[in-house]
Amino acid sequence: MKKAIGVLFLSAVYLCGNLSLNGQEFVDGARPNNWPEFVMSPEAKAAGIDGVITVGLTVSSKGTTSNIKLFGGPMWPCGIKEPEQVDEVRRAVRKFLESATFQPATKDGRPRSSDVQLYFSVSKSFADARDSKAIEENLRKGIFPPLVEVVNISRFATELPRLGGAVGSTARSILEIQVIVDEKGDVISAGTVRGLPQEVHEARRLGCSSKFKPLTYRDRPIKMTGRILFDIRR
Question: pTM of the full predicted structure?
């Protein structure tokens, strides 16, 4: 008889509501053909770069890409300056997508061009972290995942930075931050998913100074990742 997986744990583990294919998460539009695995350089891995890069692009009716724009990501470890490999990884992702092909969107049975948004995982381990089906199957076998992506990670937060703002200010921006939380509940890596380029370091400060209750299964803590939204008024 199979052992039941904890309800609280399964309610935390999630496969994004958006379509996930080839280890990448797509919001809508065209769908990818069989892509090879994206592999970072050894230097980028050694620098601790991980996470997702938010990408917008156009897919033609023939399945080719254009107008590639990178909006956020990746992440790197807290407590260090931005590694030079961050730009290297972003360039590599752009080059990868320039040669990628898609199954174009269709209308009335005919292929058409479309705009696509995707969250591009820069490591296999990070892509695996959102595979809830595989995680559940492995837990049933007693195999614990190295990293789990959870929905609404803010509900595990025990301390989030207070955001100041001028009284009556109408200027505001939304920062979406991806974090990795270790088994003790400390944020060990952070990066932007959504936000202005000039807000990257502020986003990392907010993410890295947050604290969380550890995610556990059968009293064993598991490293987790997720996204936090900060509504900043200036």
Answer: 0.81
